[in-house]
């Protein structure tokens, strides 16, 4: 019996372990940290041997193949040891792809991939297709493949999940954008990070489709220097009429392969330029699957995005509150500021990720009437914006941040939490920050009644 070692016992590791066991492999799971109770119970119930708090190398290196969690970098000693012994190291996505019977729609990009994944899934579900949602959005692809019965898999892929994928092939691959992120994993080279993102198109033939953002500088740079397989389907907003997918007013125009379609977007609740790109990509995938334009149009109107992504969370005295806690980098905030047409009171701050705020200066000058800094160290934000937005205050309390923002705002204004920073100075994660903001808005609503 062939032995497989699985490193990491989170969602992807346990999903891979259960699938490997079902396919007849001798499975051993090793996690150098502690295993969450939920996953420990699943492994115990399946009688899969596991360890936590250590890596027993003789057990791991006895395997013919190793599946690693996306969180483990290739430079980790346990991985380096495997490679020195010529033991193949693959991702959970690679392993699951070997056994999947349905078509793969795979979505990546630095920003927007969760929204695009959820929207694509929603569009396919709206016509009753048997479709699974998997990957970086929350559930393991291996687990969904083990469930079986799906004709389509809509899979969100981070660059870490794309790494260690070799034979895997998407039927429809989507690349939304490439901006600097996680460069420590890629030798601080944008070229390496871009190459990881372009793995979404690997192994394609003319029968598979690669949808990509024509307006993105890094995507264009990579395409100019590399042959990329698959049938190219460029989408963009820059008005080129020869684009496969473009916008025209409140509609998306698609003209590629055998598809000629116009899909109205006026019913969509998504706001901002970045969401126009996300919607073009999702609509393109839906058209390729064969969904009628009128059906797509109707389904756009019933879509609810994931929490913490330009999510309306309340209104007080004519002031709208929007939770965009997931905007942890400057580019995501740029799209938020650009997409909101009303005057903005901006709640910003957290753990700085080496931000350069220069791209935001014009938008802040034009749209932001006041800034509330919610963070431990706000010096960089103050230095960047105090000259162009003199109404600037600091707090480390989310309830006070919401009160201050409401005081600055007038009816018709928007209070926008779009932090541009990680959350770890005051919160456990961006979800905790977003929930805390939402709860603070609800509490202030109750006082206003």
UniProtKB/TrEMBL annotation:
First-tier enzyme category under EC: ligase
Keyword Repressor: no
GO BP annotations, alphabetical order: cell division; cell wall organization; peptidoglycan biosynthetic process; regulation of cell shape
The Mur ligase central domain, residue ranges: 107-286
One Pfam family named in its UniProt record: MurD-like_N
Function: Cell wall formation. Catalyzes the addition of glutamate to the nucleotide precursor UDP-N-acetylmuramoyl-L-alanine (UMA).
UniProt name for this protein: UDP-N-acetylmuramoylalanine--D-glutamate ligase
Organism per entry: Rufibacter radiotolerans
